[in-house]
Design brief:
Belongs to the ATPase B chain family. It is a single chain. The chain is mostly helical and 184 residues long. It has a domain at 28-120. It has three helices and no strands. α2 (31-158) runs antiparallel to α3 (162-183). It is rod-shaped. The N and C termini lie far apart (140 Å).
Length: 184
């Protein structure tokens, strides 16, 4: 680069006696001088310009490759995310349907358990009622028997005759048998 600058400096130097020189005043130059200057710039600057353009081209290509690679990675990640989303939706539907089925099973089980409890309570109630009926019947039998015996004793005490005594006993035995048949 120093050689180019030195060459331009030497060409622009003008001897006083006239000779060949480079007129650097743009308004005073002619087309030949401009052509020479442009030719020199192109000749010496060609490598620099080529290097600059090549560097710029490589930078642009690298940027494009990087962008394409990022695009491919983003596309792959998007596909993976969509796949995971679909799997999650399937799993959510499965969980939802399993939850509904479980809820229905538990509902049925609760209804069945309530029915069984109700039946047990009904059986227990009926058993208690039968037991209380039997107990009441037994109490009535005992009271009837006691009352019959009390009457028989009263009747025996009032009768001293043995014939009347046996008649009264027969009467009360028949009365007790009638009561027992009625209660059963």
């Amino acid at each position: 680069m120093k050689n180019v600058t030195d060459s331009i400096f030497l060409l622009s130097y003008r001897p006083l006696a006239g000779g060949f020189g480079l007129n650097t005043n743009v308004l005073e130059t002619d087309i030949i001088n401009l052509g020479v200057v442009i030719g020199i710039l192109i000749y010496f600057g060609k490598g620099v310009l080529t290097n600059l353009l090549e560097n710029r081209r490589r930078t642009i290509l690298n940027t494009i490759r990087d962008a394409e690679e990022r695009y491919r990675e983003a596309t792959e990640k998007l596909k993976q995310a969509r796949t995971r989303l679909q799997q999650a939706e399937v799993k959510a539907d499965e969980i939802r349907s399993n939850g509904l089925a479980q809820m229905e099973r538990e509902k049925r089980d609760l209804i069945n358990a309530a029915d069984e409890d109700s039946k047990r309570l009904e059986d227990s109630k009926n058993s208690t009622i039968r037991f209380e009926e039997q107990r009441a019947i037994e109490q009535v039998r005992q009271q009837v028997s006691r009352l019959a015996l009390e009457r028989a004793l009263v009747s025996l005490n009032s009768c001293s005759n043995s014939e009347s005594y046996s008649r009264i006993i027969d009467y009360h035995i028949g009365l007790l048998r009638t009561m027992e048949n009625t209660i059963d």
